[in-house]
Amino acid sequence: MTLSKISSIILQVPSWQRHLNSSTIRSATTNKYGIILEEPQKTPFGFLKVILTVTSGLFIGAAISKNIANFLEENDLFVPSDDDDDDD
């Protein structure tokens, strides 16, 4: 799509709909009348969930890569040689 087609599509949307779509992002603490908005919802144990998700993903990924490396070495598709050491 060219830029002119995209801009014509955007211009076809009424301005009040564009305002409604952009107002779903909450960046203010008060509404247009000055009333303080309610406190946003907090996810219980959110940080713990992130930590568990990341660590489980790392462990599962490490197990998969270990199994693939063993498969490649058993079938002689890739065997690391001692000549690859460049620690001289």
TrEMBL record:
Family: Belongs to the SMDT1/EMRE family.
Membrane topology, record value: Single-pass membrane protein
Single GO BP term: calcium import into the mitochondrion
Organism: Hypothenemus hampei (Coffee berry borer)
A GO CC term assigned to this protein in UniProt: uniplex complex
Task of the protein: Essential regulatory subunit of the mitochondrial calcium uniporter complex (uniplex), a complex that mediates calcium uptake into mitochondria.
Name under which the protein is recorded: Essential MCU regulator, mitochondrial
Positions in coiled-coil regions: none
Subunit structure: Component of the uniplex complex. Interacts (via the transmembrane region) with MCU (via the first transmembrane region); the interaction is direct.
